[in-house]
Amino acid sequence: MALYDDASDARTPSADSAAAGNVLNALPAGFRLQEYSLDGVLGYGGFGITYLATDHNLNCHVAIKEYLPSDQAVRADSRILQPKSPGAAEIFHWGLRRFIEEARALASFNHPHIVRVLRFFEENNTAYMVMELLRGQPLSEWTKRMRPLSEAQILAVIRPVLEGLALIHASGFLHRDIKPGNIHMRTDADPVLLDFGAARKFVTGK
What element of type H or E holds 39? Predict the structure, then answer.
């Protein structure tokens, strides 16, 4: 199973991400998606937008990632996504299937060092992935602030990430995009592995 690939997408579900201004095609603050209301944009890229949202059932904040490939689709006045052309429609729906597969893969993992997917759903002719809201910063920024790092600090990052990867591999997946930008440091310096958009299901022996 191939999950959709989006190396350019900024989708860290972090409460400390810089707020984006008028992001093209972004849903407005206050927009309602089922039991969630959108509070703003956390990050965006060529294949999607991540929103800060309020869960009105549980009275808490979450991050919601919307599948929105800007090269293939635009948002109509009705807020529904529409492919730009018949050719774009084929690519759009191919990517949508893989976005949903990514959500299913992440939802199957229950590990403190893997970003937690709470649920996903389809609406507005696209799909949404509801994730835990992480507080902290990307490893790439954290290392700049903490330099020079001691051996103990480096191991405190590497070992938990390897534990998360061990679970991923045991479940039959390869992440395929491990890098500082895809590791998030919580405020307590606990690392969390993000972004499974490039993941692949593998078959033993092949």
Answer: strand 36-45
Task: Render pLDDT for 68-119 as a digit per residue (tens, 0 to 9).
Answer: 998 999 998 879 999 999 999 999 999 999 889 888 888 888 899 998 999 9
Partner residues linked to 83 by β-bridges? 73
Catalytically active residues are 177
DSSP class of residue 85 equals S
Sheet with 183-186, edge to edge strand ranges: 136-138, 183-186, 191-193
* Rounded Cα gap, residues 130 and 18, in angstroms: 19
pLDDT per position as a tens digit, 114-133: 989 999 999 999 999 999 99
pTM recorded for the entire structure: 0.78
CB 9 within 8 A of CB 61: no
Q: How far is CA 189 from the centre of its chain?
A: 20
Give the three-class secondary structure for 169: helix
Indicate the DSSP class of residue 14.
Answer: B
Q: Which helix (H) or strand (E) is 98 found in, with range?
A: helix 86-107
